[in-house]
Write a structure and sequence with these properties.
Layout: H1 8-14, E1 21-23, E2 26-28, E3 35-39, E4 46-51, H2 55-70, H3 79-95, H4 97-108, H5 112-134, E5 140-141, E6 148-156, E7 159-163, H6 169-182, E8 186-190, H7 197-208, E9 216-218, H8 223-232, E10 238-242, H9 245-257, E11 262-266, E12 272-275, H10 282-294, E13 306-310, H11 314-324, H12 346-361, E14 365-368, E15 372-373, E16 381-382, E17 385-388, H13 395-398, E18 405-411, H14 414-422, E19 426-427, E20 429-433, H15 437-446, E21 451-454, E22 469-470, E23 487-495
Parallel strand pairs: 7-8, 7-10, 8-9, 10-11, 12-13, 12-20, 13-18, 17-18, 20-21
Antiparallel strand pairs: 1-2, 3-4, 5-6, 6-23, 14-17, 15-16, 19-22
């Protein structure tokens, strides 16, 4: 049966949800016996009860992970052996493609077509790529004199705490799991309480692929309970966190209060999209920025929400973008043709609507959207929204919205464009649109962002690093550079007698 003809509603109704934690290779209820209702943003219905993990559950998971690391059941396996298990894990992810995609859509509201075509394949590719990479990462020999030999080796760090957000639950988990597991670490994963289901299923698939029990543990729960306990735990050696800048600050605080564990934060963004008048295809440019911003309901940290356009073409460009917006009108995420789904919950809906109200109050011009949609379904939908006449000091230009809201700003010349783009506490991504290669490179070099796209936006791959400058975080996910986060460097000096 093709995905175009699959009755996803019927499959969703028949789906059995197991919301218990997975610790030491076993499903477990929360030790305190508490749970919370997992609600679908599609229509507000209950998906089932999910374990409310707290400090005791985190301690059990960390204890299990530490025991697995210390006895070497995973860490001491040769890289080639770890590679085979992780490749099998990736294969099992692909084999469970439709199940995982359905869980992802039900849990956080994204269209089923993108869960199938983007999230599951990207998750599998990430695990497979790090599996393939691990036996190709060589140690070093330092250039010493003839009477010494200095070996520089990468060793697994120990127990990694991974805390991931609700917008890309599987992919964000894989970005942590891939390098951490490939390097030989044990992992305790705390998924968002808003979208925990695929993380729990991934852990089961990893066990089925041959990952030893205790190496990969998942504890669902609230951030202020399970997340805080994980970040404070003295037996956790590093935290890989993706989420808001506000909580990222807390991660650093928790590290200072506990064991000075390493903290790698991938945080928010307010990415600038610069359009110069010499670019020769404004239709493609408008289509790209609309597609990038409205993808995943705007719930992406790298969404190009600040669109900086030269004043000579600003009105024309705004009309083109506004004409694109209705193509992304929200619809049923379980319909295979839907391109924009539901926001993750009522709280996020209210947050986004608050930003839309703030934009209007501060004097921005609402070109299209600005209203809640599909309220009769019980779900959380917002029309794709475009503002013109935005100033860089407005709330909608300064703060991360995490919804389908675009602000168009004007600039007079190249210097002002660069100044406005960099005038942000964030520095995750940016984009430069110009037909002049020297301008494109000149501007790109001056933008304070971890990734700069030229004449495109969302082209990406696991082979390149992802992360930001300033308050967008530290360290890098993806690529070989991610191994730096989850390994220690050890130098061993050998004296060679003549």
């Amino acid at each position: 049966m093709s995905t175009q003809t699959t009755d996803w509603r019927a499959r969703a109704a028949a789906l059995a949800i197991d919301g218990r934690a997975l610790i030491g290779g076993e499903r477990r209820a929360a030790l305190a016996g508490e749970s919370f209702d997992g609600l679908s943003p599609i229509d507000g219905r209950s998906l089932g009860r999910v374990a409310r993990g707290q400090a005791a559950d985190i301690d059990a998971a960390v204890t299990s992970a530490r025991a697995a690391f210390d006895d070497g059941r995973w860490a001491r396996r040769p890289p080639a052996a770890r590679k085979r298990v992780l490749q099998a894990f990736a294969d099992k992810i692909l084999a469970a493609k439709e199940e995982l995609a359905l869980l992802e859509t039900l849990d956080m509201g994204k269209p089923i077509q993108y869960s199938l075509s983007v999230d599951v394949p990207s998750t599998a590719r990430t695990i497979a790529w790090y599996a393939e990479a691990v036996d190709k990462v060589y140690d070093e020999i330092a250039p010493t004199g003839p009477n010494a030999l200095a070996l520089i080796q990468r060793e697994p760090m120990g127990v990694i705490g991974a805390i991931v957000p609700w917008n890309y639950p599987m992919i964000m988990a894989a970005w942590k799991l891939g390098p951490a597991l490939a390097a030989g670490n044990s992992v305790v994963l705390k998924p968002s309480e808003k979208s925990p289901l695929t993380a729990l299923r991934l852990a089961e698939l990893a066990l089925a692929a041959g990952l030893p029990p205790g190496v990969f543990n998942v504890v669902p729960g609230y951030g202020h309970e399970a997340g805080e306990a994980l970040a404070l735990h003295p037996e956790v050696d590093a935290i890989g966190f993706t989420g808001s800048t506000r909580v990222g600050r807390k991660m650093l605080e928790y590290a200072g209060r506990s064991n000075l564990k390493r903290v790698y934060n991938e945080l928010g963004g307010k990415s600038a999209f610069l359009v110069f008048p010499d670019f020769d295809d404004l239709d493609r440019c408008a289509q790209t920025v609309a597609g990038s911003l409205f993808f995943n309901q705007g719930e992406s940290c790298n969404a190009p929400s600040r669109v900086l356009v030269h004043e000579s073409i600003a009105d024309d460009f705004a009309k083109r973008v506004a004409a694109e917006a209705p193509k992304y009108r929200p619809a049923d995420p379980l319909d295979a043709k839907t391109v924009m789904g539901a926001l993750v919950d009522d709280g996020q809906l209210r947050t986004v609507m608050g930003y839309i109200d703030a934009g209007q109050t501060e004097g921005a011009q609402l070109l299209t959207g600005g209203t809640q949609a599909r309220a009769e379904t019980g779900g959380y939908y917002v029309e794709p929204t475009v503002f013109a006449g935005v100033r860089n000091d407005m709330k909608i230009a300064r703060e991360e919205i995490f919804g389908p809201v675009m602000g168009i700003l004007r600039f007079k010349d190249e210097a002002e464009a660069i100044r406005l783009a960099n005038d942000s506490p964030y520095g995750l991504q940016a984009s430069v649109w110009s037909s002049h290669v020297d301008r494109a490179h000149r501007v790109a070099r001056q933008l304070r962002a971890g990734t700069v796209h030229v004449n495109q936006y969302d082209e990406d791959d696991i082979t390149v690093p992802f992360g930001g400058y300033k308050q967008s975080g530290n360290g890098r996910d993806k690529s070989l550079h991610a191994f730096d986060k989850y390994t220690e460097l050890k130098t061993t000096w050998l004296r060679i007698n003549p």
